[in-house]
Amino acid sequence: MFAFSNQQQNSEEIDSSTPFVAASDGDLALLQKSLQHLSLPATVADSNGLTLLHSAASYNQIEVMRWVLSQPNIDVNAKDSDGDTPLHHCDQMSAAKILVEEAKVDYRIKNSDGQTALQVKEEEANEMGGEMDDGEEDEDFKNLEELVGYLRSLP
């Protein structure tokens, strides 16, 4: 996944990765500017099939998610090269709720490993929980447990 720092970029520094960096960082102005500068639609995907919605959902960038979802022809169930949808990439319940309740994603879609988003997140939670010391509280783990609980509650 991406690990980006939030930095100012001017037109000379905008390249094909800029929209994805901006989506991950929650920088809507830079996202819009870079798409315009590169003449790209909001439906753009990188070489791994990651869309702007994947990038924003991965980092719980709610404002960017809502903007992307408001654009024409967005495939809310787009799969990356691993068959993961934006929902598979969510690590927080708030992003998942937007995808499920507002964008009406198909939360039953399985990735290339035959796993739904719920199964992927349960596996991640089990791995993360096993790595923590007794009594240790981790914000990421709490967010993941909350997300798993939400996904389990879906019909």
TrEMBL record:
Region Disordered, residue ranges: 115-140
Record's keyword annotation contains Repeat: yes
Gene3D superfamilies, sorted: Ankyrin repeat-containing domain (1.25.40.20)
Highest taxon above the source species: Eukaryota
InterPro entries from the UniProt entry: Ankyrin_rpt (IPR002110), Ankyrin_rpt-contain_sf (IPR036770)
Biased composition (Acidic residues): 124-140
ANK repeat start-end pairs: 48-81
Keywords: ANK repeat, Repeat
Keyword Nucleotide-binding: no
Designated name of the protein: Ankyrin
